[in-house]
Amino acid sequence: MIANLNGSYAFDTLDGIEEINLIEIDLPVRTNKEIEDTILQITNEIAKEYNWIIDLRE
C-alpha cells in the first residue's frame, strides 16, 4: 500500500473509502522496561484524545 502526499493510506470498504494514518514509534535499542512503559502510557493518552487505535507490534 502506498501513502499519499499527506502520509495517509486509504482502502476500499463496503461503505466507501476509509483513510488511515500510521505513526511508527521506534524505541532505542538500549532501553529498559520502565522507559518502554512510560512511552506506551504517553502513546495511549494521545490515542485516547484523538480516538486512534494502537497496533502494538513487538
If you had to describe this structure to a student in words, what would you say it looks like?
- The chain is an alpha+beta fold and 58 residues long.
- It has one domain.
- The chain contains one helix and two strands; from the N terminus they run ββα.
- It has one helix spanning 33-50, and strands at 8-13, 16-21.
- A two-stranded antiparallel ribbon has the order 1-2.
- The mean pLDDT is 75.
Structure keywords:
single chain; 58 residues; alpha+beta; two-stranded antiparallel ribbon; 2 strands; elongated
Poorly predicted runs are none
Report the mean per-residue pLDDT as an integer.
Answer: 75
**What proportion of the residues is helical, as a percent range?**
25-40%
Structural class: alpha+beta
Number of domain modules: 1
Q: Give the CA-based shape.
A: elongated
Q: How many runs of DSSP E, i.e. beta strands?
A: 2
Radius of gyration: 15 Å
- What's the main sheet like? 2 strands, antiparallel
Beginning-to-end CA distance, first to last residue: 21 Å
In terms of DSSP E residues, the strand content is 15-25%
Please, how many helices? 1
| Lateral strand order in the biggest sheet | 1-2
Order of helices and strands: EEH
